[in-house]
Design a protein that fits this description.
Oligomer: homodimer
Protein name (chains A, B): LacI family DNA-binding transcriptional regulator
Strand order of the largest sheet of chain A: 2-1-3-4-5-11
Number of strands of chain A: 12
Radius of gyration of chain A: 26 Å
Organism (chains A, B): Actinacidiphila polyblastidii
Pfam family, one (chains A, B): LacI
GO molecular function, one term (chains A, B): DNA binding
Largest interface: A-B, 55 and 54 residues
Order of helices and strands of chain A: HHHHEHHEHEHEEHEHEHEHEHEHEE
Largest sheet of chain A: 6 strands, parallel
InterPro entries (chains A, B): HTH_LacI, LacI/GalR-like_sensor, Lambda_DNA-bd_dom_sf, Peripla_BP_I, Rhodanese-like_dom
Helix content of chain A: 40-55%
Distance between the termini of chain A: 66 Å
Structural class of chain A: alpha/beta
Strand content of chain A: 15-25%
Chain lengths: ~350, ~350
DNA sequence: CTGAAAGCGCTAACAA
DNA sequence: TTGTTAGCGCTTTCAG
């Protein structure tokens, strides 16, 4: 009965009338512009309160062309998105940064290629000022979609193509992988296997490359491809064990896969790290600290990378269209990694 | 260089011009209204293609007052939101249903009370046509916020207050809990413990009530409160074990907590189910099938409940303001639960 | 069946 | 400092 959904919300006009000023002045007060006499401003603010006025975003956007909203698009079925703590952490960082800048995060889930059209429409529809793209595969069409939509974009992870003005944030996957393998080597291991991620993603390829940098002549049977899930890790481990029962160390391209590998190792009766040393990648604490034994891994600061992505995008969006100011042009960011030693290697 | 972000997107006006019709006609075609001669319609469509026209949502919303977007607000820190597969499944169902109706899902994360203001502004700003509220605690102010914003709302889980026109979707928590306890009883267990969820949420209270329905005189020391995390489950189990070493069965208010309890039970040297039978709630397959041993549990169809919430809300939003048609008034939904027997009880 | 015209609510020049 | 005046791009009566 006292439901407001039908009572149309008050407009700026109403506020102005009540405060006895013009719409322009009311607008100035609402938007915090300088140069409104304190007395008037106060009257307007009171009117706003009394009427419960809230600006109509559509109207505002129509003229300012800003939404104060950023889309996060994940090229991954929801199942994986939610199952993988990696995304959670990244989104967390993004969310914090956006919130701090009064921007809304709009999460767009894509279950498959069919959803790309919808996402394309959404981006082109001008709902958001920019987009953060995630988990791209090979020649994913998402970036082009965003580009065509005219929406500034920052990509999570190095994209598969080279292109001067593509912005992204990634960690030093290759260097991290090298550190991992060297650590294993330093432990005296000689039959070192690698469980790679899906090779249609650059992170996987880069980590594999790092592995090969250190072990260029490694037995090719000591490399198996997983899919960044625990199960994938377990299956890869099983295959590795089958092919090379003498394996004495494993570098998994993610903690999540490492946890699966650990499980499989136990099933097969191997002790970790005595028989087989295991090292992961990511340092997702909720995984790496809870495996048995706790996981030695290569740390990347995922949440911080999320924040960086958001910051980068926000700066791009706000870019004053190359006016005289010497704002350094936004550039891709590659963060360092760090070995975290626990019990598994 | 060929970047489009500066080339302003084509407007309906441009499309109309190119097709040699009026803006009105172009609009009709774009929105699929009846009654435009096929030939003209075709010309318009071609113009749309050639220009790559996409309607400006802000402009459209300004006049139609519809957004075709629904907010999902989770009253839970992101950490938990992402860590708990329960949310993932629910969001999945929602997302599917919304997508099927060409609605966008806008996920609003709230890290704490401070974010409520932001959410309130967002809802009141008219960004969305409705809101789905989740994981409400006690006298959460979110529903009132939404109400004040004039945004139709559906709540996930029975709210803590009674109110004729509050829409929600929940499962039969109390009945499910009764089934769980009876099952344990049927197994011959007599020292049955309960790990409750946070008691500021109705789901927890309802499950506890169900437990008590069957075991009204149970030793109060056999009840401990958890927090819906694995750790919380483990800690609660530890407390239980400490207080009543003779416990021979546990009903945990969620699978996630049950998994923690299982871990603690193993640590303490108990065999499951021989020494202690364990039953969970939810049937989150990725948890219940993977614990050791696999978890007997009370199943609720979480994804379907998500869909139902979305459907309910969409129907409410589209409600033709009580015209003559005899659309049944939307009402809360309570779904049944079902015992799924695995190895733990 | 089609077009002309009137706004939706707001911001941003431009005047005063 | 404040008000007046144009629109932003679209939908939707209302005539024709």
């Amino acid at each position: 009965m006292s439901d407001q959904s039908f009572a149309s919300r008050p407009t700026l006009e109403a506020v102005a009338a009540r405060a006895g000023v013009s719409r322009a002045t009311a607008s100035r007060v609402v938007n915090g512009s300088e140069g409104v006499r304190a007395a008037l401003a106060e009257r307007v603010r009171r009117a706003v309160d009394e009427l419960g006025y809230v600006p109509n975003q559509a109207a505002r956007t129509l003229v300012t062309r800003r939404n104060d909203a950023i889309a996060v698009v994940v090229a991954e079925p929801e199942t994986r998105f939610f199952a993988d703590p990696f995304f959670a952490q990244q989104v967390r960082g993004i969310s914090k940064e956006l919130t701090a800048h009064d921007n809304q995060l709009v999460l767009l889930l894509t279950e498959g290629a069919a959803d790309y059209q919808r996402v394309g429409r959404y981006l082109a529809g001008g709902h958001v000022d920019g987009a953060l793209l995630f988990s791209l595969h090979d020649d994913d069409s998402l970036p082009m979609l965003a580009r065509r939509a005219g929406v500034p974009t920052v990509i999570g992870g190095r994209p598969g193509w080279s292109d001067a003005d593509t912005l992204y944030v990634d960690c030093d996957n290759r260097g991290g992988a090298r550190d991992a393998v060297r650590h294993l080597l330093g432990l005296g291991r000689r039959r070192i296997a690698h469980i790679a991620g899906p090779l249609d993603q650059t992170a996987s390829v880069d980590r594999l490359d790092g592995f090969r940098d250190v072990l260029p002549d490694n037995d090719p049977r000591l490399t198996a491809e997983g899919d960044f899930t625990p199960d994938g890790g377990a299956k890869a481990m099983a295959a590795l064990l089958e092919r090379c029962p003498d394996v004495d160390a494993v570098f998994a391209a993610s903690d999540v896969m490492a946890s699966g590998a650990l499980r499989m190792l136990r099933t097969s009766g191997r002790r970790v790290p005595e028989d087989v040393a295991v090292i992961g990648f990511d340092d997702i604490v909720s995984v790496s600290e809870w495996t048995d034994p706790p996981l030695t891994t290569i740390r990347q600061d995922i949440e911080e990378m999320g924040r960086m992505m958001a910051r980068l995008l926000l700066r791009t969006v706000a870019a004053p269209a190359a006016n005289g100011t010497e704002t350094p042009a936004p550039a891709p960011i590659v963060t360092p990694t760090q070995l975290v030693r626990r019990a598994s290697a």
